Amino acid sequence: MENRVSRLSIRNIKFLENGPYSMELAPGECCGLNGASGVGKSQFLRAIADVIAHGGECMLEGVSSLEFTPQKWRSAVALIPAESFWWFDDVEPHFAAVSLGDSYLSDLLSRLGFGPDVMNWQISRLSTGERQRLSLVRTLIRQPQVLLLDEPTSGLDQKMAGVVEEIVTELCIQKTCSCLWVSHDQEQLKRIATRCFTLERTEIVEMML
Amino acid sequence: MNVISLGVVDLSLAAFLLLLLAFCSLKIGLGIEKRIIFSGLRMTAQLLLVGLVLKALFASGSFPLVFCMSLVMLLVAGYEVSARQKRKLRGRTGYLISTGSMFISSFSVAFLALTLMVNVSPWYTPQYAIPLLGMLLGNTMNGVALASDRLTTDIYNQRGMVEQRLLLGQSWQEASGDIRRDCMRTGMIPIVNSMAAAGVVSLPGMMTGQILGGSSPIDAVKYQILIMFLIAAGTGFGVIAAIWLISRRLFDDRERLVVENLTKANKH
Q1: Chain A residues with at least one Cβ partner in B under 8 Å
Q2: pLDDT at position A1, please?
Q3: Cys-Cys with B175: which of A5, B63, B165, B235 at CB 3.0–4.6 Å?
């Protein structure tokens, strides 16, 4: 896989009553993010992915998000929201934008406990955990440079949560992407993050692991 | 053949049917008697009034008067569209969009029909222009109202899905494509249905009127075909314009979904 991951700079991001927040995400770095519930962690990620109006700017290797088309920016800086949404009846068409039969895809699917027949499953019959794992795969095969994960293991058992941690950590170590991981689980953040931050209403504070 | 003129007694007899219906509703406790009587009275007053206005208008045939009349019709249609929305765009934009899209489609189609097809001289002769525009506006109003209501409601209810598609790198056109297609279909359903039923299930109102008024059925049919084509085209263009303009307002320049541009749901 090509090695093209860039540094993400977050400069004075503001939205509603929140911010300004600034931080740097080095290539291949995995940062943890926690904070009181309702403080705006999900909105912060949504502002970085540029799906809500915000002040300040985000840059990839010094290039502002405004220089990207919105589609290019969101493909490079990919947010996986806590609740995933699906719009076709079956699983397969959601993956059709990317070439199927790709070994990366089948590898991800089998590590996350899916057989090849998963593509024929109906969305309406997926469990919360299955949706969560599939939505991770759906984003990863698009090969983003930065992953913004909003409690990606909230609906998973311990074993599957471990697999997700492993996959993301590997990607970061190989420097195929970097990651900002929101979680309430302190232990999980210790396992996966190189640095950890707490989000407060008006600032983002680095904390000791 | 001359038209048989209707007298007060004839109309009263017809109105008596409505009174009978209201009486039944009262007896069985359906609770619609007040509404039936009120809308019956309102319809009578509206039509008598418009009859007088049209009489004066036909007698004068002046362009400014015809123009004023069409403007009033357009503004009322615009009001009707926004009154029927569950969620509207904030501010005056919603009203401007629905009025604007009806103006573009109905007025240009009516103008084309008057100058190219009916070929009446002068082209704004009120006997042709006003009924033609009225039929176009009435149908376009239905289409635009249905489609915009569906669009704002669907985008609001499916905002999570639309945003998910944006997050996966889709453009706003792709992310809202399914919804916009559904709305287009919804807006076109009434006219497509009436084209399908025309002549087989129902005799369209205008054609019935012409036949009752003494025209030959063949002439009436030709006019009806013309009108159906015009209505279908006018409704289609009006719906396309409204859907495009409204969805443009629901995404900002960075292709973010801004449901904040919609008002709270309006309880009917």
Answers
A1: 49-53, 66, 70-72, 74-75, 78-81, 83-87, 97, 138-139, 142
A2: 44
A3: B165
Question: Per the structure block, which two tokens stand in for B203?
Answer: 């005799």
From the CA of B143, how many Å to the nearest CA of chain A? 26
Chain A positions touching B154 (Cβ under 8 A) are: none
Give B100-121 pLDDT, tens digit per residue.
999 999 999 999 999 999 999 8
Say if pTM beats, i.e. exceeds, 0.80. Answer: yes
Cβ separation B256–A51 shorter than 8 A: yes
Could you tell me the pLDDT band of residue B267, with boundaries at 50, 70 and 90?
low
Q: Which of A49, A66, A87 sits opposite B167 (nearest CB)?
A: A49
What is the pairing mode between strands A55-60 and A8-15? antiparallel
For residue B155, the SS3 value is helix
Q: What is the ipTM of this complex?
A: 0.95
Taking the C-alpha atoms of residue B16 and residue B39, their distance in angstroms, rounded to an integer, is: 14
The residue among B35, B60, B85 that closes a domain is: B60
Please tell me which residue of chain A has the smallest CA distance to B179. Answer: A87
Longest dimension (CA), chain A: 47
Q: How many helices (H) and strands (E) does chain B have?
A: 11, 0
Output the CA torsion sign for A79, A84, A89, A95. positive
- Chain A contact set for B255 (CB, 8 A): 70-71
Q: Which of B42, B60, B78 is the last residue of a domain?
A: B60
A80: which chain B residues are within 8 Å (Cβ-Cβ)? 167
- Closest to A61 in 3D by CA, of A73, A47, A49: A73
Provide the residue type at A180 as one letter: L
Whether B224 maps to a domain, the answer reads yes
Chain centre to alpha carbon of residue A25: 13
Cβ distance of B168 and A139 shorter than 8 Å: yes
* Spatial contact of B240 and B184, defined as CB atoms under 8 Å apart: yes
Shared domain for B46 and B98, answered yes or no, is no
Per-residue model confidence as pLDDT tens digits over A157-167: 999 999 999 99
CATH number for the domain harbouring residue A181: 3.40.50.300
Residue B212: pLDDT over 70: yes
Q: Is residue A164 part of a domain?
A: yes
* Block residue for tokens 């969560």: A132
Q: Exposed, middle or buried, A106 (CB in 10 Å: 0-12/13-18/19+)? A: middle
